[in-house]
Specification:
The chain is an all-alpha fold. Among the domains are: 55 residues; 36 residues, no CATH class. 59% of the residues lie in helices and 0% in strands. It is flat, with a radius of gyration of 30 Å.
Length: 153
């Protein structure tokens, strides 16, 4: 190479390093510090940064690129899983979504576009039921003594 050949230096941003690091560390804060963010940013503002559409897009692209290399492993896992299910068909119910989820994670199968199911909070329903029972008791008309019937078992 001659002297006039310019070397192109790719400067990776902190955000790019964070996208790359996020799956390597146990916490987002540790990944942020390793990517070059300050400790105060890593402990506080980092969650605002990772929620931005720009960061989410970069993370998705990195994830799909990284997981596309898993295709041979996914095909092998699919083959192994089929062998397990053929030997014991009852195991199908335990593993019926495994291969599909692996393919979706690798980006070779589109994710399900099902609307999120609403979650029913049993505690809230129980509290509402108790509240309604108390309201009925409070609003009940008083029973006259002559109307009270004594039932003995």
């Amino acid at each position: 190479m001659g002297e006039d050949t310019k070397q192109v230096e790719v400067i990776e941003s902190k955000q790019d390093r964070l996208v790359r690091n996020i799956h390597k560390f146990k916490s987002i804060g540790a990944a942020a510090i390793d990517a070059g963010y300050s400790e105060s940013t890593a402990k506080g503002r980092i969650y605002d940064i990772i929620k931005t559409p720009k960061f989410q897009k970069a993370l998705r692209e990195h994830y799909l690129t990284s997981n596309a290399t898993l295709l041979p492993k996914i095909l092998k896992a699919e083959s192994d899983l089929m062998d397990v299910i053929l030997l014991d068909p009852e195991k199908l119910s335990k593993h019926n979504n495994t291969v599909k989820q692996m393919k979706q994670a690798a980006g070779i199968l589109e994710p399900d576009n099902q609307p999120r199911q609403q979650v029913i909070n049993i505690k809230s329903i129980k509290e509402l039921s108790i509240h309604l029972q108390q309201k009925r008791i409070e609003q009940a008309e008083p029973v006259q003594d002559a109307e009270v019937i004594d039932i003995k078992a």
